[in-house]
Automatic annotation (TrEMBL):
Example GO BP: putrescine biosynthetic process from arginine, via agmatine
Keyword Aminoacyl-tRNA synthetase found: no
Catalyses which reaction(s): agmatine + H2O = urea + putrescine
Organism from which the protein derives: Heyndrickxia coagulans (Weizmannia coagulans)
Entry protein name: Agmatinase
Length: 290
């Protein structure tokens, strides 16, 4: 966690060395302590930064370039290996500091559980918070094999904190029957399989709201993002995910923070997933930071 100087390792392309003058802070949450299938997402933030050198700084989608916004790359948080609770507490404290400093927090995961402490920190500042969630999985379990701190639980925890009706999930194609039933019973909106069209229908109702957006890379079909811990066939294309990011950008939704999680480089032999994630980061910053 670095505040007063630029991270000394690989930084995201175009990052400013000046924390004080930067609107956005990129920070890595290299944690995969609770995964139930394939570990390795703790290496995702570093790899996303490394491959960003291959990006153009200009977005033809948004007609903006990275030079138009100022962002600081704080590097990866020094999370204690194998200690989920302490790691989550550190993330919450860090994001709270960023918010106190007036920054737009942009997290790179790491497993999806890292979103939970960020939501807690953001909710303290924005009690009217809504959450947009892109994922293959519901992540609505109360526990996984008896463990409540699991990558299968962050959206359930989020829904219980900010209210199920304030959580909107898209691209979902995997989960327990009980999870879908709980969502329906409690008024949480889940768009199964698709993202762009159901998102467009929801965005007007979120106009003017403070919204946090979390993107699990496995919302993409494995053909587009094989480098992730829990692949699930039948996902959307990278083109559709980009269009969804741009739909949010062109709406009146007030995005106040975001993250992109679950990139696992060890399964990404062509670096296809990391390169896709890097482009998504560019579009999210240029689209959501006004």
């Amino acid at each position: 966690m670095r505040f007063d100087e630029a991270y000394s390792g690989h930084v995201f392309i175009g990052a400013s060395p000046d924390y004080e003058k930067s609107r956005v802070v990129l920070y890595g949450m290299p944690m995969d302590w609770t995964v139930s299938y394939r570990p390795g997402s703790r290496f995702g933030p570093g790899r996303i930064r490394e491959v960003s050198i291959g990006l153009e700084e200009y977005s033809p989608y948004l007609d903006r370039e990275l030079a138009e916004i100022s962002y600081f790359d704080a590097g990866d948080m020094p999370l204690p290996f194998g200690n989920p609770q302490k790691s989550l507490d550190m993330i919450e404290d860090y994001v709270g500091t960023l918010l106190d400093d007036g920054k737009f927090p942009f997290g790179l995961g790491g497993e999806h559980l890292v979103t939970w402490p960020v939501i807690r920190a953001v909710y303290k500042k924005y009690p009217d918070l809504a959450a947009i969630h892109f994922d293959a999985h519901t992540d609505l379990r109360t526990d996984y094999e008896g463990e409540p701190l699991s990558h299968a639980t962050p959206i359930r925890k989020t829904a219980e904190l900010i209210g199920p009706r304030n959580v909107y999930s898209f691209g979902i194609r995997s989960g327990l029957k009980e999870e879908f039933e709980w969502a329906e019973k409690n008024g949480m909106q889940i768009a199964k399989f698709e993202v762009l069209e159901p998102l467009k229908k929801v965005l007007p109702s979120l106009s003017g709201r403070h919204v946090y957006v979390t993107v699990d890379i496995d919302v993409l079909d494995p053909a587009f993002a094989p480098g992730t811990g829990t692949v699930d066939a039948g996902g959307i294309t990278s083109k559709e995910l980009l269009a969804s990011i741009h739909a949010i950008a062109r709406s009146n939704v007030n995005v106040i923070g975001c993250d992109l999680v679950e990139v696992a480089p060890v399964y990404d032999h062509s670096e296809q997933t990391a390169n896709t994630a890097s482009k998504l980061v560019r579009e999210m910053m240029l689209g959501w930071v006004k």
